[in-house]
Amino acid sequence: MDILESINMAVKTLTANKTRSTLTMLGIIIGNASVIMMVGVGQGAQRYASQQFESLGPNVLFIIPGSEKAQNRSVDRPRSLTLEDAKAIASQVPTVSAVAPQLQSQLLVTYRNKKADTSITGITPDFTVVRDFNVARGRFITDLDVQRRNRVVALGSDLAKKLFDGADPIGQEIRIRNISFQVVAVMQAKGAFLGSNQDDVALIPLTTMASRLVGRTSPYGTSISFINVNARDEASINAAQFQITNLLRRRHKIVNENDFTIRNQKDALEIVGNVTGALTLMLAAIAGISLFVGGIGIMNIMLVSVRERTQEIGLRKAIGAAPNDILTQFMIEAIILSAIGGLIGTTIGVGGITLVGAVTPLKAGVSVPAILIAVGVSGGIGLFFGVFPARQAAKLDPIVALRSA
Amino acid sequence: MQKTIIRLEHIFKTYGSGDIQVNALSDVNLTIEAGEYCAIMGPSGSGKSTAMNVIGCLDRPTSGAYFLDGLDVSTIADGELAKIRNRNLGFVFQQFHLLPQLSALENVMLPMVYAGVPNTERKERAAEALTRVGLANRMGNRPNQLSGGQQQRVAIARAIVNHPVVLLADEPTGALDSHTTQEVMNIFAELNASGITVVMVTHEPEVARLTRRVVWFRDGQVVESHLAPTELGHMLAA
Ligand SMILES: Nc1ncnc2c1ncn2[C@@H]1O[C@H](COP(=O)(O)OP(=O)(O)O)[C@@H](O)[C@H]1O
Ligand SMILES: [Mg+2]
Predict the structure, then answer these.
(1) Is residue B205 assigned to a domain?
(2) Can you tell me the ipTM of this complex?
(3) A-to-B residue pairs, Cβ atoms closer than 8 angstroms
């Protein structure tokens, strides 16, 4: 008996029993759709995070307080980096073109009766260079502002909208923790970075922030959250990293382990890759389990089907079907069910991903390898879980089968 | 010249094991020549169906030899036996056993599917067989759209479509009324006239009287092997 004939016969049987066929496919459909969606979302997250770091440019270095080891612990960061460190880097490291220390805190901002809980960032003028963040209206914070600890503020575009509702904020006084600040600038819209809104910020001179708002001063000087550094060009990244390390070790009088960590864009991308890769794998594993459960579903219903169709099997054997013919027939039924289930599941999965991409910033890629693997795996699952029921059918004794009326 | 088509020699069929063994067949010897039209009769439980299953290669005897057309089939492997059932034998059952999802034509085509006959030839021959049993105008119907007599005629068409040498029927009229029984028996007579050996189990004397030889079973043994249908009265009286 040829294979086309077997397929034709299997299709007839499956279409004669649409409800059962659909139910059998359901598990595979769900399994497949979830594999493709989960992997797609995971990869979308990966791509999103990578793009964000890539958008910073290849010349950036991040200097963060705490040793390399401390980065993996969720302890309070030590206050080992200071504004003076940043100044020293700017003046003494020749491969560096811009240095932007930052001090951050979430604080309450008010303007008349309007309130907002916002990220307040203490910065120096280089902030605009390093972060490629420009003023839309007004003038940005100057070195003089930093020097004199002036109470001036540059508002992110969203925060300006929130507090001023379309009115012109320039020259107005707002209050941060009940200290009044004069608005000198409104920034251009910048969008989100790793999910946090960069336009819902208030930028003030770092010194003002340290002395008046969070009081983060350490014995070494004005303590800060981290320093963004731009190397002169991509080629001088390594040199800059080396020189900054030496300088800071000398300044902090370190003999053993550094009390700071320097990361470049490649490091950051790698970390993001590791985290989101693990996430993707976990999602894929969960989805894989549902695919497996779908396979067990196929086996179950196939076993029921073999029992229900004993008479048919007996009759086929009586008129000349060899055990192999019966085996083939049931295997093909299982494979067709799981392959069609796989295709439907894939379609749903791709649809789901497109939807996720449309409503979230996760531009979830439809991953062709994930589709191929999912469809291949579901075909394989049909094969694997179909074998047992098909063998049961092939083994049936024709007279016993015929008698089971 | 006569040719032996079926020869059973000292056939035993034992069911169960240990203390509760049942000899469904105990030392059955039977010879049927090519072209015969033969009824198997006997009380319920006397081993008629068991004997038919052995003759039809659906079941293997516990011991003894069975020659079908000169070939000792008691030693043949399952896959080969399937081929013999497919090409040399035709079956008709009391319960028709048609596949409900297939049309009459497709049901009749089924044995040819397993014989590897090409699709176009299959259709032609299935149509021919259905015409032969008087169902030329019912080919597209599903079994549930056919009467009992029509379904049994489809089953007969299916049994003869591969040109078997022997047609085996276990109580083929058991589920039919007297009118359709007559129709079905006419078909068997025609098929026999065309040269096919026909062996059928029946418990209806009227049906047995339409054949040319009666084999009588009792307690798993052949007690009369060449009874003329006209002499049936003696056995029924006994
Ligand atoms: N699968 C089986 N297991 C046990 N006993 C069986 C089986 N098939 C038939 N028998 C027994 O064998 C004997 C003959 O049965 P069968 O050939 O069906 O008789 P008949 O067809 O003449 O009514 C009966 O006693 C029956 O109970
Ligand atoms: Mg019987």
Answers:
(1) yes
(2) 0.93
(3) 67
